[in-house]
Amino acid sequence: MSNLVTKAVEAVYQMDNDQLNQVIEAIKLKRQYLAKQAVRNFTVGDMVQFTSSKTGGKVNATVEKVNRKYIVVSTHIGGEKWRVPATMLTPLA
């Protein structure tokens, strides 16, 4: 773990319930921010790659629709449609 994470974990162990709730809220807000940033990186027609939750292998796909949190992609082999969180996608050159 990095030094920053180690310090954060140590701080969490010293917090009471109200402080933990504040940290949880801050984490949720940061995740929402990161998800919105990730969605902005993709447009319809982009080539992307992600790791399949079913097989664990890499899947190449094309973006078909961009939603608020999820991206709808169509795989290159088989043409299956997947609804994938934007944070799990990697753009292909």
Produce a short descriptive summary:
The protein is an alpha+beta fold.
What this model shows, in words?
This protein is elongated. With 93 residues, it is α+β, with helices and mostly antiparallel strands. Strands 4-3-2-1-5 form a 5-stranded antiparallel β-sheet, with no helix packed on it. The mean pLDDT is 92. It has 2 helices and 5 strands; from the N terminus they run ααβββββ.
Low-pLDDT residue spans: none
Cα-to-Cα separation, first versus last residue? 31 Å
- Rg for CA atoms: 17 Å
What's the tally of helices? 2
**Largest sheet report:** 5 strands, antiparallel
Q: DSSP strand (E) fraction?
A: 25-35%
* Backbone shape: elongated
The overall pLDDT, averaged over residues, is 92
Structural class, from helix and strand content? alpha+beta
Compute the number of strand runs: 5
For the biggest β-sheet, the strand order reads: 4-3-2-1-5
Helix coverage percent: 25-40%
Encode the helix/strand succession as letters. HHEEEEE
Topology:
Elements: H1 3-13, H2 17-40, E1 47-51, E2 58-66, E3 70-75, E4 81-85, E5 90-91
Antiparallel strand pairs: 1-2, 1-5, 2-3, 3-4
